Amino acid sequence: MEIIRGKHASFIDEPALVERLAGYDAIHVDIGTGDGRFVAHLARACPNAFVIGIDACRENLRDVSRVAPENALFIIANAQGLPAALRSLASQVTINFPWGSLLEGLLANDPALLAGLRRVARPNTMLEVRLNGGALAEAGWSLEDGGSRVRDVLAENGFDVPPPIALRAGELKAIPTTWAKRLAFGRDPRALYLRAVRNVSTVSELERV
Ligand SMILES: C[S@@+](CC[C@H](N)C(=O)[O-])C[C@H]1O[C@@H](n2cnc3c(N)ncnc32)[C@H](O)[C@@H]1O
To answer: Using a 6 Å cutoff on CB, does residue 104 contact ligand 1?
Structure first.
């Protein structure tokens, strides 16, 4: 799979990835990571965790990846085709303020995206999704209906998901991602937070599909 650090892109195979992850207590995967700021923040805040950021767009990752700590890794990949080497790795997954095909895939129950999420997450892995009103409106959904739809899709795919929680400017300001800040200080600071857990009982059943 292709990784990036600064301007330098290279490839890492599964054994090399396993070696890099050795000794860490937790592995956090952030999908649609954007400029990587969230990953770098988490990696510095939690030195015993290894944090992997994934995005389809390499240009945004250059600056933060160049100076990110050793326990952070940036992978260039499409969320609809998550690398097989990430199977059952994540103890925590985040998708913060998705747009484009990542958001559309969540709303449409895209089989490739959802199968990838299930593969990456271990049983009991927490999946946190933050959705913003503007991106949902562009995709043709109201904030409320979009949040319910993503909740239903995750539930169909083996996640236990309580109802979404509304995030306003104050809460958005406290989330260490670039988009959270943009939203918090923008014209429409409305977002939703979904906190799902990978359901142990459906793991083998869904993996047979
Ligand atoms: C609004 S930005 C949010 C970035 C970051 N999570 C944040 O909160 O600042 C959405 C990100 O999703 C990425 N994205 C959209 N579709 C994707 C896909 N199919 N696979 C991987 N990344 C995708 C975009 O490249 C973009 O960086």
So the answer is: no
pLDDT single digits (tens) 111-123: 999 999 999 999 9
Contacting residues for 4 by C-beta, under 8 A, at least 6 apart: 10, 58, 61, 62, 65, 74, 75, 76
* Phi-psi sector, 109: left (phi>0), alpha (psi -120 to 50), beta: left
Answer yes or no: is the C-beta of 33 below 6 A from any ligand 1 atom: yes
55 Cβ closer than 6 Å to some ligand 1 atom: yes
Helix H or strand E segment including 151: helix 143-156
pLDDT in tens, 146-168: 999 999 999 999 999 999 999 99
Q: Is 98 in the pocket of ligand 1 (CB under 6 A)?
A: yes
Domains of the chain by residue range: 2-207
Q: 45 CB contacts (<8 Å, ≥6 apart)?
A: none
- Which residues are CB-contacts of 28 (< 8 A; sequence separation ≥ 6)? 42, 46, 49, 50, 51, 52, 90, 91, 92, 93, 94
- Determine the distance separating the centroid of ligand 1 and the alpha carbon of 40, expressed in angstroms: 16
Whether pTM > 0.85 for this model: the answer is yes
Query: Is any ligand 1 atom within 6 A of the Cβ of residue 74?
Result: no
- For ligand 1, atom 17, the nearest C-alpha belongs to 102
The fold adopted by the segment(s) 2-207 is Rossmann fold (3.40.50)
pLDDT at 51: 98
Question: Hey, is 63 helix, strand or coil?
Answer: helix
